[in-house]
Amino acid sequence: MRPPSHRFQISVLLFALGLAACAPPSAAEVQAQSAPTLIAATRPRAWDYVAIGGDFTYSHGWDDVFARHLEEDLGVEIRFQDLSTHDNIRLDRWLERIQTDAELRQAIEEAEVLTFDLPDIAYLARPTTLYESGFCGGDDGKECLRQTMAQLEADLGPFLDEIVRLADPSETLVYTFDLGSLLPYIPVDIGVGGEFIQPLSGEEMRTWADYELEAYRLLREAVEGRGIKVVDLVPTFQPDGPYTVPPEEKYFLMLGFSAEGEAVIADLLRQAGYDYDRP
Fold first, then answer.
1. Helices (H) and strands (E) in the chain, counts
2. Could you tell me if residue 150 is inside a domain?
3. 140-192 confidence digits (pLDDT tens)
4. Which helix (H) or strand (E) holds 79?
């Protein structure tokens, strides 16, 4: 059984302070109080922060930095679990995993804070390879990419419905991310064997970026109305537009974000705020 909701805890605090005997505050006055202030004042038990997803989360440290921000900002102990994976699975498989793995399901259900990322590589890796090789199909050679986007759109609804059912955004801080077209342009040193890999042409890079942008458009459309906060990385990491190389190499390492880049991601999460999705 989940502990009493934060709304309940806050109500108890207000009563204990004697505010119940006074004229009740207006809705505007209640909303004007910051979530961190109210949370810290209630002094709840330690909070659980759970991070799930693919390689954007796995092997990176931004979530650990964000956990420390949560402790500093909210004044509560944070128990952090990174339950992301490196197995490159789509959202339908993530949904199956959540529904069948009792420990994972319980962790999400008991979390006060949840972050998840869109496993875009799981969707786009194979079709972009087929496109680059000329085997994607269709008059324009992009049919497999369109089919992949249709599959992503179909997978998003059931996955997100399960997420918000277990981690209700009216009582849980739930965040996801918009990477835009960042991925194709992140500098990657392939290393040994790289000399045998044909570099992408400008047109191929643009096509890959097009479908990355479409994937995150579908994500934003799907989370709308579900109370999930979308953290937009694009203005910071790709300020010159969606078809440009990230300007500051200090934010990136060979296979992803540097410590400085991770710090930026954690700060963007912090800036997204700690307000619940209240009706």
1. 12, 7
2. yes
3. 999 999 999 999 999 999 999 999 999 999 999 999 999 999 988 876 543 43
4. strand 78-82
Alpha carbons 13 and 40: distance in angstroms, whole number: 11
Residue 73 lies in a domain: yes
Q: What is the CATH number of the domain that holds 134?
A: 3.40.50.1110
Q: What's the token pair of residue 210?
A: 């097009």
Cα Dmax for the chain: 76
pTM: 0.84
* Structure tokens belonging to residue 206: 């643009």
Q: Give the number of domains in the chain.
A: 1
Assigned domain for 17 exists: no
State the residue range of the domain holding 204: 47-272
Q: Where are the alpha helices (DSSP H) in 186-237?
A: 202-223, 234-237
What's the CA gap between 115 and 54, in Å, rounded?
A: 11
| 179-to-118, 139, 209 alpha-carbon distances in Å | 9, 29, 11
Sign of torsion, CA 144 150 155 156? positive
Neighbour tally for 207: CB within 10 Å: 21
> How do 256-257 and 252-253 pair as beta strands?
antiparallel
Instruction: Note whether residue 135 is domain-resident.
Output: yes
Q: CA-to-CA distance for 105 and 86, rounded, in angstroms?
A: 19
